[in-house]
Amino acid sequence: MQFGIFTVGDVTTDPTTGKTPTEHERIKATVAIAKKAEEIGLDVFATGEHHNPPFIASNPTATLAYIGAQTDRIILSTATTLITTTDPVLIAEDYAKLQHLTDGRVDLMMGRGNTGPVYPWFGKDIRQGINLAIENYALLRRLWSEDVVDWSGRFRTPLQGYTSTPRPLDGVAPFVWHGSIRSPEIAEQAAYYGDGFFHNHIFWPASHTEAMVRLYRQRFERYGHGTADQAIVGLGGQFFMRKNSQDAVKEFRPYFDNAPVYGHGPSLEDFTEATPLTVGSPQEVIERTLSFREYVGDYQRQLFLVDHAGLPLKTVLEQLDLYGEILPTLREEFAKLRKPGVPEAPTHASLVEKAGGAKDATVYAEGDAATGTSDRPLGDPEVAKVLEGEL
């Protein structure tokens, strides 16, 4: 199982000091946090993608390449790659290049984002969000799995005899997760291709997470990729820790109460009861995290959001030190509970082994699903019903 952190790159005023970091400070802090993540033994660092203030998470490939040059082991991922508004040709090129630069320490999390205006900024229609996600991802897979691509679709100019360069490292594309908070269509897309499904898991109650993951597992099995237990699942989460739980609550409360997303809403106590946010002692974080397995089953990746809501860099690094202290226990306890036959989290090395080292190997899925076409969204009549809201 992989453990890590993700960031959305928000620039938020610290409510306890009134200080707002500059963009430069926040960008540099992101790098420091990623390096600390590797230092404490985490497996994954992921960054979101935003193109509007108050975020500094634009151009994730530049950020990840810079971090990659200063780290040796940690997997570098996106917490969202905007498959709807970013040209799949650019995604194919950028992330294959990042693969080479980092010796394969790269994967992606596809998503539609949560900022409506980004669609017209990049010349897209938000009303076509789902259709864009389907068509663009189908093209992206072909660009990575086929050396020469002829293609035409609804949302970009046709391609004739096009070769995306560089080709994926070792002939194996980065592993793809499909991330979502609320959209069953995205769980369906992940299941169709046999990709990973990452449920954000930071705002909604456990019952919603359970339903989304169950849908993905059922459809993964329906599409013939393996049993439901073999589906690749990731979860988000949030925590704030101090050695003493009362100290954690006291220190975190002003950040929670003023956070741009959930501030000035439910109380901290109500929010921690209704969602996976855990504010307390290290033992409380361990117990709450282990409980996630009770409603999603064995899963492969756990990422936490720790640098949001205006928390200063010093505090974030202290949180990571505490995370490092509980990490061995989390690894040991999840391993004890893991059922036989549950796959490990995919890595570049495991994907190369699975593909048999073939330079032109089809990745993730076999058959038509691996090279889905834009005129047949996901290859199953029931999918159309999902997209139309009938299931």
State the gist of this model.
It is built from 14 helices and 13 strands. By secondary structure, it is α/β, with parallel strands linked by helices.
What does this protein look like?
It is a single chain. The protein is of the alpha/beta class and 391 residues long. The chain is 42% helix and 14% strand. The chain is built from 14 helices and 13 strands. The strands form 3 sheets. The chain has an 8-stranded parallel barrel, surrounded by 5 helices. α2 packs parallel to α3, α3 (88-101) crosses α5 (129-145) and α10 (282-291) packs across α12. The radius of gyration is 20 Å and the shape is globular. Residues 1-295 form the Luciferase-like domain. It comes from Nocardioides panacihumi. Keywords: Monooxygenase, Oxidoreductase. InterPro entries: Bact_Lucif_Oxidored, LLM_FMN-dep_put, Luciferase-like_dom, Luciferase-like_sf. Pfam families: Bac_luciferase (PF00296).
